[in-house]
Design a protein that fits this description.
Chain lengths: 359, 323
Amino acid sequence: MKYIDEYRDKALVARLTEAIRAISKKEVALMEVCGGHTMAIHRYGIPSLLPDNIRLLSGPGCPVCVSSRQYIDKAVAYSRLPGTIITTFGDLLRVPGSKSSLEKEKAGGADVRVVYSILDAIDIAGQHRDKKVIFLGIGFETTAPGSAAGVLTAHAKNLDNFFFFSAHKVMPPAMKALIDEGIKIDGYIAPGHVSTITGSDMYREIPEKYGLGCVIAGFEPVDILQSIYMLVKQIETKTPRVEIQYRRAVKPEGNLRARALLEEVFTFRDDWWRGLGILPNSGLTLKEKYRSWDAEQMIPVTVAEARDEKGCLCGEILKGLKIPTDCTLFGKICTPSDPVGACMVSNEGSCNAFYRYGE
Amino acid sequence: MSHDLIRDIFMTHFHHPVLSHQTDSAVVEAGNTLLAFTTDSFVVDPVFFPGGDIGKLAIAGTVNDLAVSGARPLYISASFILEEGLPVGELEIIVQSMASEAAQAGVGIVAGDTKVVDKGKCDKLFITTSGIGLLEERHRHISMGSQVQAGDCILINGTLGDHGMAVLAARTLTDFAGSIRSDCASLNHLIYRILNTFSGVHFMRDATRGGLATVLAELSGGKAFGVTIREEDIPMNDPVRGLCELLGYDPLYVANEGKVVMVASRREAPAILQEMRKDSLGQKASMIGEVVDDHHGKVWITTSIGGRRMLDMLAGEQLPRIC
């Protein structure tokens, strides 16, 4: 398949791993902060190709994993309201809230529908004008412009039965918070799809203030290995900077149209991250102008304060301090079919990837 | 999870020694005759999809469960639960398709039952088929895989993931519908020819729900051998690969309805592969891996780029990813 096979070329992979071995002297820990990278690294068995002195850590890059239990509790509460249809991406279905999940509510008769795009949710709202249709908007800068376009569509169509429940977050505050917390890493494999929207400028502070390199990486094995090579080279030559490996998709200025959509619809708010706590200006919520489509404003529900599960190391794992097998729940009480923590739920979660692909 | 239900509810209360083997077909004795006996219910949305329909599926699925046990399928029963309001024309098309698939496979549909339920109590129609086949004593070991040993080779008769992705596309992604066709087919003739010519077939299973990965995980689970497969040798059609890439699905876990995973002795495997390729259902057959005396109980895959990782059983349904 064009644009895929070239980036999975065995000979090229072998050349890259040799090149990495040739320049890599120091013990380094590189962190990826995008669930897509976590998946690809495990799926292709990339750790098995690297020298022992290079360690890959998975950071808080899975939107489902860093979301609060309270968000799920609220979504569950919404699903129990009469005349309400919940529309969501598939990943969220199985995420455990305090007592229930959307999957359980669906089995119990709630109208919860998996959609592939916010536009599907808007179609559903158009077909069911007598019902309230709530879309669960989740993800980083990659998926947020889609949500923004959806809200604008609802606005243009004057769909007053469509509501948006935001769990959108932005990446840079978390990347800085991890270093501020003293997590020992030597460079970031920076998220490729997030950067197609935002461009590369938003990472500038990481080399300038913290002295760590950032390489914006694509998602194919060759992309990831080349990015590791670039990071190792920066480390060995002590020249930390922001570089774009994923040049076929990422421009330094990002996607101006998508950025304008974000600017139009969203405003920043302080938001809670699993494992990191509340980070200033790290979440996105609808601007006042669009409050008629904001589920939290228009359909308030109250849920009890949610606590994290005892013994679950999700927080430590998201920070790269622990690996899934350090957790006593892993693989015993916590499995993909019966997850305790969010890292086990999503396909992109570290624990889920560890469980499925082993080490 | 149906695995848990089977273990905790059905196995606990039915506890028959034959049932406890959990093979595709039960192997039972009737007088001096060895029979394979199986049953399966078919629920699919939509009932018509590129490459087949629920009727063809109901026949081929049961024929294949018998055939992979090493048996020659003979007779099938078919029970229908029909939703009130199902157009008779649609039912007739489905029944014709069952008749034609049964004729193709050489099995007789000899018993049946029909119930009609109120609208909303079922989704169009559910079909349950049961089948019996004759099993020769020399093939009795196949469904249990008791002769599988390190050094054996693993074969598959063609491309992976076609059925699961065809149905998914027909259901939700109509832009893709048509470019992917289900592989739904009865495999008994292909299998029968191989069993008649060769003695080295040690295990067979059709890679239906849960896909190739689940078959291999079940084959090796708890055994004193491991399984290694090579990603680059696994045949796959481009549109299937493309749709899996797009949705973040792992094709190794996607359902097939016309694929047999065969474990054969190293000595005979190359000739069996040649024989498979002569059949119209085996033109893209491939040797995808080996049984090894290493990582006992586990399946490892050498990825397309030369890395290694473990394969496990899938928990729950595959869900499309957010980004």
